[in-house]
Amino acid sequence: xxxxxxxxxxxxxxxxxxxxxxxxxxxxxxxxxxxxxxxxxxxxxxxxxxxxxxxxxxxxxxxxxxxxxxxxxxxxxxxxxxxxxxxxxxxxxxxxxxxxxxxxxxxxxxxxxxxxxxxxxxxxxxxxxxxxxxxxxxxxxxxxxxxxxxxxxxxxxxxxxxxxxxxxxxxxxxxxxxxxxxxxxxxxxxxxxxxxxxxxxxxxxxxxxxxxxxxxxxxxxxxxxxxxxxxxxxxxxxxxxxxxxxxxxxxxxxxxxxxxxxxxxxxxxxxxxxxxxxxxxxxxxxxxxxxxxxxxxxxxxxxxxxxxxxxxxxxxxxxxxxxxxxxxxxxxxxxxxxxxxxxxxxxxxxxxxxxxxxx
Length: 359
Prior knowledge:
This protein is α+β, with helices and mostly antiparallel strands. It has helices at about 40-50, 50-55, 70-80, 85-95, 105-110, 125-135, 145, 160-165, 235-240, 245-265, 270-275, 305-325, 345-355; strands at about 5-15, 30, 35-40, 65, 120, 180-185, 185-190, 195-200, 215-235, 280-285, 330-335. The strands form two sheets. Strands 1, 2, 3, 6, 7, 8, 9, 10 and 11 form a nine-stranded antiparallel sheet that branches. α1 (about 40-50) packs across α10 (about 245-265).
């Protein structure tokens, strides 16, 4: 049976705007009939991927989400002695394996060889793409490989941890899509939370007092604060499968992503608010039964003076109530609770790593 690891995080954010909407204001959601602040799943996954917990701990095993592999190929071929025209011609054929070429980008700058979509590319695929380009420079034909949208480049499993976790879709090469092993919810505040407005000014340092006393610039910015609930569900068997059966790497990946979600935050307006957060509560569960979120704990918004303490109590009570009604959702579980002073991140990481079997 499939082995699932479920992670529940409660994290306090001070006044900040880490994840903005199209108007530059904090993202929101209505849940339980009241407004909450929200951090999108996409922003949380990107923060995790770029965090030292993953990018440094998994060096050499992280992919790149980019439109610019073709530019990379052009640069590489120039270093191999190719002229500009030949380098671009080969790069176009290689880049097309990952998606349709962006003709508008090429019109603006003929040196650009880019695709329209962002494609998740593993280190092994990048290496294979450069090797294919080198062979083409030596006279090999790429026509058949480019037409088949794969050839010797694309993979369905390899050592790229972020692709194994978060998956990818290649519209023009669906046989090489990867099903995500990690599901990440949007994080929402456990309580009612509204976007607040900050009216601010900027002073022109070279302006003379004799001119006037007005500011050089005035504007408004939105911000918010609160206790956020985040739920992450990991299919450990699919993770190992996506990593081409490398279970040692799967264990290392589980430790890294757990630390990343506990310590990383989206980077929006970080210089203005310095929201370097750490999870105040983590509940890690493992078992073979159908996963379940504990978001229902906060359908009725938390109120009171101690929002964190009440949020932790609500989460624990809901987990117990669901277990009583449906049976245990997990075989084993571990927690870290800053309010009670119990558990550690190291303990949580060790717990999740042991959930990847040897077989």
